[in-house]
């Protein structure tokens, strides 16, 4: 979570990308809840690796861990030296069975798995694998090779950024070995390098499938992921708060509307999320994300993202237009 999410600015100027809301919940909360729902035992600790985003971000992360009854640990990556270096920053939490996940993408998957496996790497078949770390496997789905972003075709099984290690301490030791010996790939410390070291030392990794891999890299992909999550959660989550006030308003599902939000004289949806304590008046909004305490008046809004405490107001118009007239703004 330590990256700055530059492709999603201005929304990531004040918070890390994993805290952007998707259908009313931060990305990272949906990831944590997804793991918790699939895991039959107790999750003891959730460790986050972040940059310097301030106390408010730390408190929100702590609340996410508390939702599943887990201890929260927060670590800091001051320099962008690669994903394995980010894990190195949190090495004190690597002990016993552990899951490691990148916190900036969402998934549709069944995360039930056999804890007796040495290790698991979740993958998704992709059309253009050159931008991803990939794996090669044998006929038993045992991984034989890890390759980081090869320009030459190796495999179409892309690593999505979720890993299970039965022996977290051994994983920690190999991460430390990588850092201590300055073993870099593409100029950074890569997780695939650690996995290759562990494989060569006898750890058997298997691939695990992802049904859908939902990107959150830029505004267009966030809106597409938001749309898909609303579809998936429409019948399993209570998406419209009981404290939201809807007056002379039509809501076209699926939509999320947060607590204490007031909507008057509007058409909302489909595929709209409105945060808590917002005011929406005289508006038509479709396929958009509006964060908390925002105010939107007298506009038609599509395919848009508005940040916390933002205000967007048009001008109410009374028109008296005759035949064959064109008016454009």
TrEMBL record:
**Translocase as UniProt keyword:** no
Q: Nucleotidyl transferase domain: which residues?
A: 2-230
What is a single Pfam family found in this protein's UniProt entry? NTP_transferase
Keywords for this protein: Transferase
Which GO molecular function terms does the record list?
transferase activity
The record's section on InterPro entries has: Mannose-1P_guanyltransferase, NTP_transferase_dom, Nucleotide-diphossugar_trans
Checking PANTHER family in the record gives: SUGAR-1-PHOSPHATE GUANYL TRANSFERASE
Q: What's the protein here called? A: Nucleotidyl transferase
Look up and give the organism this protein is from. Haliscomenobacter hydrossis (strain ATCC 27775 / DSM 1100 / LMG 10767 / O)
